[in-house]
Each structure stands twice: as C-alpha cells, then as structure tokens.
C-alpha cells in the first residue's frame, strides 16, 4: 500500500485518545491485532480517488475490521459496502480526475461504523446513455444495518453501520 498511500496519513488508535499513533504507512493494530479493543478507529485521509487506491483501502479496511469482532460474513459486507461508497466518489463526486476522499472507521462495544467523505459535487450521469450501473447505494443499503447519505455544498458523506453479532468479552487490564 505504500505505493498509493505512502504519502497519506493513516492513524490507528485505541482509547484513550491521548494514545493516538500517527504514521506514514498503514500500521499494525494495537494489542498485537489479535484481541478486540473497546474503542478503536481507523482514519485514512486525503486519499486519491482512483481504482488502485480504492482497492488498497478496501484491503486495509477489511484487515482492520477483522479485529473488531464482526464475523466473516459481516467483514465481507463491510468490504463490499465501503468499496461501493468509494467507487461512487470516483464515479460521481468530481467532474475532473484528481479528487480526494477520506475513510473513517470506528468500533465501540456493539457497532462498527464506516464513513466515506468527499469534497466534490454530485456528477450526473449523461442523459440518454444506457447503463448497467447505478446499484451501489442499493447494495450499501442492503448490506448495512444503518445507512446515511448526506450531500451538501462541500461534498458527500456516506455513513454505514453494522452491529456485531457475537463479540467476545473485552480483556480488562
């Protein structure tokens, strides 16, 4: 991932917020990555809206989500829904190439939330051109427990939430 994301900020942290660790490359998870933690987030900002970056961010997100207590079916749902949201940035957010987006993922005791944000304006599909596309939002809606799409003058926010089905008890220090 360093090829496409090496100049971008990635942050993985565990509670309390004073223990944030900022890094250039996408780091390993806290606690050795084998135990869920009560509050964990992943933040990837200023990402180039390209297919190569979307693929790499999806891989990184899926790796992170596996540490949150979601089962493998839910992990696959998160990966696909986030991919669709990021693909929409490429297809609809910017008139010209060169746009950017942010991905923020957070888990607490019983949910995982992923947010994809861009700074573009919704680009309309040309009239009269038949397309087999346009099912990304439907896919996201079907894969998530909660889905919010907020479009405003400074971009679009897609927020997706999943409830954990079975989460092992948290280790207490």
Automatic annotation (TrEMBL):
Recall the GO molecular function terms of this protein's record.
protein serine/threonine kinase activity
Q: Region (Disordered) spans which residues?
A: 1-34
Do the record's keywords include Transport? no
Domain Histidine kinase/HSP90-like ATPase residue range list: 49-162
Does this UniProt record's set of keywords contain Kinase?
Answer: yes
Please indicate which superkingdom the organism of origin belongs to.
Bacteria
Q: Which UniProt keywords apply?
A: Kinase, Serine/threonine-protein kinase, Transferase
What name is this protein filed under?
Answer: Anti-sigma regulatory factor (Ser/Thr protein kinase)
